[in-house]
Amino acid sequence: MARVPAGRCVYAVGDIHGWAPVLDTLHEMILADAAASNATEKLIVYLGDYVDRGPDSRGVIERLLHPLPGFRAVHLCGNHEALMLDYIQRGENGALWAYNGGDTTLESYDLPSGLITTPDGAARCREAIPAAHLAFLAALPRMHREGDYLFVHAGIRPGVPLDGQRDEDLIWIREAFLDSDDDFGVVVVHGHTPRREIQQRPNRIGIDTHAYATGVLTCVALEGGERRFLQTASWQ
Fold it and tell me: What pTM was estimated for this model as a whole?
């Protein structure tokens, strides 16, 4: 059985995609669960995709800038944060970001949804989006390890050592990782690929439960060799 370090309880949160009220509900559930834990150290690992598709990406980032009391937080980069930065910092991949829900993120910052198609769109984004939000996005790591668990947004490339993984795979990979039965040496906790149900395999746990479409935001709590799952209610 995979384990996290003794005395530590680790919560991993799946893809939020701009649904700040759903995140609020899950945070309340995490606080209640942690109150019943004997762990002396509590950590939340957010698996990325905080922005796009849902109505309040700005609100999600604002919440993540202020960790829950008594918790340490690790915020990983998802492919949607990478797309957002590609456009805002370098003016690249704007059409791809818009196609993947970037317009809703702009609207949450009171920017017009069609801004991405304008010549000065990236510059206007840099002016309108708070510097603290841009700094937060720019500093997001790609992976985090706790004991026998590795946390990433999308997955890892089978056959490649953990210290040799490419950033692109960590935030974008799907089938090559999802279909693999390899023993990775760790259990990979990931989001990125939405499923109606939690995915538990010997080598991975997938917790992207399509929150932006279903309202179901999932968290796995890891304590010692135990796993337990917290989920918000579906609005369907």
Answer: 0.97
